[in-house]
Amino acid sequence: MAEVVLGVCGGIAAYKACELLRLFTESGHSVRVVPTASALKFVGAPTWAALSGKPVATEVWDDVHEVPHVRIGRSADLVVVAPATADILARAAHGLADDLLTNTLLTATCPVVFAPAMHTEMWENPATQANVATLRSRGAIVIEPAVGRLTGADTGRGRLPDPASIFSTALHVLSRRVPDLAGRHVVVTAGGTREPLDPVRFLGNRSSGKQGYALASSAVARGARVTLVAANVTLPVPAGVDLVTVGTTEELRKATVSAAADSDVVVMAAAPADFRPASVAEKKIKKSDDGGEPVLELITNPDIAAELGAAKRPGQLLVAFAAETHDALENARGKLARKRADLIVVNEVGTDLVFGADDNTVTILGADGTTITLGKLPKADVADAIWDEVVLRLASRFGHDGTPQDRTSGP
């Protein structure tokens, strides 16, 4: 059982924190709610006290003999601020301490997770973005807000992620304790591309996107800013990611190359179609009346991972995936070299293998000659194992001042 501090700020989404509190308490965690004075205008102190079973205070002057402004932060295993307003992000970034929550943030030595919620213009304002960058650089986890309905009729980025998603991220943070991807921008691709044949048919594959989504969720919990490029995935969007949806391989290529421009790591977990039709019929292709066989001409799609590998910046890492039906390791080693990847994740695929399953069996090959074989594991655990290898390589490529070292990778 963990000691969790739930900070609640004065935004309309404060009512959703009640559900987040319930998820923590029902899973056995001890939760102390620390609202701001503004938060109590949306949800009153009796509600928080009743749901948490603990007293609620907003000021350092309440119960002074217990020194709450120091004790609460010191004893916490995790601090989650949800919703986190633009105001609290600014005050936390600048080290202000004018109420119990900001004092708790200054004294906490445990992981801190901010779940922002505000209007789009406030989130995108350069001041807010600078404050977010500052917090992330210090190891705080600031998850990206969701896109959706805001206060009134407004729609855009700034909506509080679903409480269940925030809770899932928080549990992952508790299990890791160290935000070892803090300050990093990672790009993860997921799903399978589809190449149109006509208005109703396409060439595609069975990729569900589960492994890519697990990688994205894990990266958020480890402190990264995550761009998730998803091709035809129907899974719930992980809390805290910047989602880009695509359909075809060319769309995947454009989105990934664009996102990779300022990234530290690119993980190509998606399954792009290797081929596409040379032309797309404007109308549905009909069966021939004389029973003749249709002829389909295919052309090769671009190799996105190879393009990214050739364009890697000093210090940037590329993780490729190799889904193989036979000679898996031999084929993967060839791909590792051709794509100039730093790591390649190998798994055998086929009917009843990997696609759509919740677990995976993989081997991770490194350009430095390392080989790591993982037994059958949940895809979330596989994701963590991949990030563990990435973190080791990031550490070896950056100097003590955080600047990239002038070294290249390759077999």
TrEMBL record:
Function according to Swiss-Prot or TrEMBL: Catalyzes two sequential steps in the biosynthesis of coenzyme A. In the first step cysteine is conjugated to 4'-phosphopantothenate to form 4-phosphopantothenoylcysteine. In the second step the latter compound is decarboxylated to form 4'-phosphopantotheine. Catalyzes two steps in the biosynthesis of coenzyme A. In the first step cysteine is conjugated to 4'-phosphopantothenate to form 4-phosphopantothenoylcysteine, in the latter compound is decarboxylated to form 4'-phosphopantotheine.
UniProt entry keywords in alphabetical sequence: Decarboxylase, Flavoprotein, FMN, Ligase, Lyase, Magnesium, Metal-binding, Multifunctional enzyme
Record domain Flavoprotein: where: 3-168
Signal peptide residue numbers: none
Protein family per UniProt: In the C-terminal section; belongs to the PPC synthetase family. In the N-terminal section; belongs to the HFCD (homo-oligomeric flavin containing Cys decarboxylase) superfamily.
Residues covered by region (Phosphopantothenate--cysteine ligase): 186-411
Binding site for CTP: 274, 284, 321, 335, 339
EC number, UniProt record: 4.1.1.36, 6.3.2.5
Cofactor binding annotation: Binds 1 FMN per subunit.
Chain spans, region Phosphopantothenoylcysteine decarboxylase: 1-185
Metabolic or biological pathway: Cofactor biosynthesis; coenzyme A biosynthesis; CoA from (R)-pantothenate: step 2/5; Cofactor biosynthesis; coenzyme A biosynthesis; CoA from (R)-pantothenate: step 3/5
Protein's UniProt name: Coenzyme A biosynthesis bifunctional protein CoaBC
